[in-house]
Design a protein that fits this description.
This protein has a single domain, classed as Alpha-Beta Plaits (2-Layer Sandwich). The protein has two helices and six strands. A hairpin with a 5-residue loop joins strand 5 and strand 6. The model has no long low-confidence stretch (mean pLDDT about 90). By secondary structure, it is α+β, with helices and mostly antiparallel strands. The chain has a six-stranded antiparallel β-sheet with strand order 3-4-2-1-6-5, with helices on one face. The chain is globular and about 35 Å long.
Length: about 80
Protein backbone atom coordinates (compact mmCIF):
# COMPACT_ATOMS: atom_id res chain seq x y z
CA UNK A 1 0.00 0.00 0.00
CA UNK A 2 1.25 3.49 -0.81
CA UNK A 3 0.19 6.59 1.11
CA UNK A 4 0.46 10.28 0.26
CA UNK A 5 -0.01 12.94 2.91
CA UNK A 6 0.75 16.62 3.36
CA UNK A 7 3.27 17.47 6.09
CA UNK A 8 1.38 20.62 7.05
CA UNK A 9 -1.96 21.84 5.78
CA UNK A 10 -1.57 24.57 3.18
CA UNK A 11 2.13 23.90 2.59
CA UNK A 12 3.73 22.37 -0.51
CA UNK A 13 5.60 19.58 1.30
CA UNK A 14 4.41 15.98 1.04
CA UNK A 15 5.42 12.55 2.31
CA UNK A 16 4.96 9.30 0.45
CA UNK A 17 5.07 6.07 2.42
CA UNK A 18 5.16 2.70 0.66
CA UNK A 19 5.80 -0.93 1.43
CA UNK A 20 6.05 -1.93 -2.24
CA UNK A 21 9.64 -2.44 -3.39
CA UNK A 22 9.05 -1.65 -7.07
CA UNK A 23 7.40 1.70 -6.26
CA UNK A 24 10.23 2.59 -3.85
CA UNK A 25 12.76 1.78 -6.56
CA UNK A 26 10.93 4.03 -9.03
CA UNK A 27 10.78 6.90 -6.55
CA UNK A 28 14.51 6.57 -5.76
CA UNK A 29 15.32 7.15 -9.43
CA UNK A 30 13.27 10.34 -9.70
CA UNK A 31 14.90 13.71 -8.95
CA UNK A 32 12.09 15.32 -6.94
CA UNK A 33 11.72 12.50 -4.41
CA UNK A 34 14.16 12.20 -1.51
CA UNK A 35 14.39 9.13 0.72
CA UNK A 36 13.79 10.43 4.25
CA UNK A 37 13.10 7.22 6.17
CA UNK A 38 13.47 3.48 5.88
CA UNK A 39 12.08 0.64 7.97
CA UNK A 40 14.49 -1.86 9.43
CA UNK A 41 13.43 -5.53 9.35
CA UNK A 42 10.37 -4.52 7.32
CA UNK A 43 9.92 -3.28 3.78
CA UNK A 44 8.99 0.37 4.39
CA UNK A 45 10.25 3.48 2.60
CA UNK A 46 9.31 7.12 3.26
CA UNK A 47 10.02 9.81 0.69
CA UNK A 48 9.69 13.59 0.93
CA UNK A 49 8.78 15.75 -2.04
CA UNK A 50 7.43 19.18 -2.93
CA UNK A 51 4.52 19.98 -5.24
CA UNK A 52 2.74 23.25 -5.90
CA UNK A 53 -0.77 21.75 -5.63
CA UNK A 54 -2.27 18.58 -4.08
CA UNK A 55 -3.91 17.49 -7.33
CA UNK A 56 -0.50 17.43 -9.06
CA UNK A 57 0.91 15.25 -6.28
CA UNK A 58 -2.01 12.81 -6.63
CA UNK A 59 -1.70 12.74 -10.43
CA UNK A 60 2.04 11.97 -10.38
CA UNK A 61 1.70 9.28 -7.74
CA UNK A 62 -1.21 7.75 -9.64
CA UNK A 63 0.98 7.51 -12.74
CA UNK A 64 3.77 5.86 -10.73
CA UNK A 65 1.58 3.32 -8.94
CA UNK A 66 -0.93 2.71 -11.72
CA UNK A 67 -3.74 2.56 -9.15
CA UNK A 68 -6.72 4.73 -8.34
CA UNK A 69 -6.49 6.95 -5.25
CA UNK A 70 -8.62 6.43 -2.14
CA UNK A 71 -9.03 9.27 0.36
CA UNK A 72 -9.89 8.55 4.02
CA UNK A 73 -11.60 10.86 6.51
CA UNK A 74 -8.31 12.40 7.67
CA UNK A 75 -7.38 13.41 4.12
CA UNK A 76 -4.70 10.74 3.69
CA UNK A 77 -4.54 9.46 0.13
CA UNK A 78 -3.82 5.76 -0.39
CA UNK A 79 -3.16 3.89 -3.61
Amino acid sequence: MTYLFQEERGKNFYRIQTDEKNIAHTLKRRNNFHLSGIGFNVGLWIFSCEFSRPDIAKKILKSITGKKAKIDLDGVVSF
